[in-house]
Amino acid sequence: MRILAIETSCDDTGIAILEVSKTGNFSVLSNIVASQIEVHKKYGGVYPMMAKREHQKNLVPVLIKSLKESCLLKTNLSENFTSVKKSDISKILEREPELLKKLIPFLKKYERPNIDLIAVTNGPGLEPCLWVGVNFAKALSYFWNIPIVPVNHIESHILVNFLASPKLLAKAGPATALVVSGGHTQLILMKKIGDYKILGETRDDAAGECFDKCAKILGLGYPGGPVISKLAETSLPGKITLPRPMINTKDYDFSFSGLKTAVLYADRKVKNNPATSLRARSKEYKKQMSAEIQQAIIDVLLKKTIKAAKDFKAKTIILGGGVSANTELRKQFKKKLEENKYGFFAAAKKPYQINLLVPKPNLSTDNALMTAITGYFHKNKKASLKTLKADANLRISK
Ligand code: KG4
Ligand code: ZN
Questions:
Q1: Which of 260, 323, 364, when mutated, tests ligand 1's pocket best, judged by the most ligand atoms within 8 Å of its CB?
Q2: What is the C-alpha separation between 286 and 252, in angstroms, rounded?
Q3: DSSP letters of 118-177?
Q4: Distances (CA, A) of 206 to 1, 35, 78, 290
Q5: CA–CA gap between residue 198 and residue 321 (Å, rounded)
Q6: Which domains, and CATH codes, for the chain?
Q7: Is 19 helix (H, G, I), strand (E, B) or coil?
Q8: Of 214, 232, 213, 221, nearest in space to 331 by CA
Q9: Nearest Cα residue to atom 7 of ligand 1
């Protein structure tokens, strides 16, 4: 079967086409992401209404690119565009007029592609952005008569890890999944697919948000994660010490806003000191600060994830979300699990090593391939066009 997936939960416009063989193996026909970084860079963050406008602009061109790459874009030979269909699609895209303007000529020009299922992210995320994707999916579903499956964005950050070996999913649980992105930081217990429990989450800022805000304070640009990680590569934390909020609490919750505030105060101190201001805010200072910010975040994420894995006797630790693209974070998780070979379950009858799953960096950040994979695993949960909604606060479990 072939799945067309749409992901617009934040500031990336993603469309992917996934082919699933009869034996259940995946092959990626296309995975296109149009990034809005250039647009949001100027403001140092994402403004939902601006992101919505960009999605409206990008969706049809990204769809064309995705279909073309999958050899599924064919010019229409017969006229099947009636005024009834036009008026129904206009109703579906009532709130996305710019998208409608691009979609109508596209539907007139091209044939229905050979697709069996549409998967779309319907939450959590930025409400206006989610709605663009959901309404776009509805318009295509209606016009081409293809069923839709709604996809939870957090679950898709987890399940993308099963791209190479989908059959591993049945044997992965219990697993503890750490989803760390610009909008979310959650530690989730996955017993099996569909059976999730949120063990803990951030009480304030997400880990990615912390990277972004710290980078803004240091004048490093947006998004913060990649810049901080790059600067940190060539430095050790040095003399700067930042707090590791909540690292020793018994729960599985996180808090990152205090770390950002500590960076703000530390930075003010050096800035306001005329004797040191120039020298202190040198490249070297920014490098050391970056290394310490990154290490503080990694320390907390690693400690709590390992604690959860031990407490719940996890067979697998799964990482996902933009922050899991961080090279140092990946390295330190891997090292920790290798060091502890058989250590965690010394008391268990048969000690075993915890398996670590981490997506490729381009699949850590938002993309529609993860939406397609998740849509496949939930292929039987089709939604009706009438009731399908975007939900900015959608939870993976109650
Ligand atoms: O998952 P994602 O693409 O979008 C959301 O759903 O939020 O995550 C984006 C976040 C941003 O905060 C960005 O700074 C962070 O992921 N990020 C990184 C890295 N690459 C992206 N953080 C740390 N290290 C990276 N290499
Ligand atoms: Zn995400």
A1: 323
A2: 31
A3: EEEEEESS-HHHHHHHHHHHHHHHHHHT--EEEEEHHHHHHHGGGSS-GGGHHHH-SEEE
A4: 36, 20, 50, 17
A5: 16
A6: 2-157+363-377 (3.30.420.40), 171-358 (3.30.420.40)
A7: strand
A8: 232
A9: 182
- Judge if the upstream peptide bond of residue 124 is cis by omega within 30 degrees of 0: yes
Q: What are the tens digits of pLDDT across the range 221-255?
A: 889 999 999 999 988 767 789 999 999 999 999 99
Amino acid at 79: E
pTM: 0.95
- Residue pLDDT, tens place only, 175-213: 999 999 999 999 999 999 999 999 999 999 999 999 999
Q: How far is the CA of 303 from the centre of ligand 2 (A)?
A: 22
**Which residues does a 6 A CB cutoff place in the pocket of ligand 1?**
10, 181-183, 208-209, 211-212, 223-226, 229, 321-323, 325-326, 365-366
Cα–Cα distance measured from residue 296 to residue 244, given in angstroms and rounded to the nearest whole number: 5
Nearest C-alpha to atom 3 of ligand 1 is from which residue?
A: 365
pLDDT averaged over every residue in the chain: 93
Residue with the smallest CA separation from ligand 1 atom 16 is 322
DSSP letters, 277-327, are HHHHTSHHHHHHHHHHHHHHHHHHHHHHHHHHHHHTT-SEEEEESGGGG-H
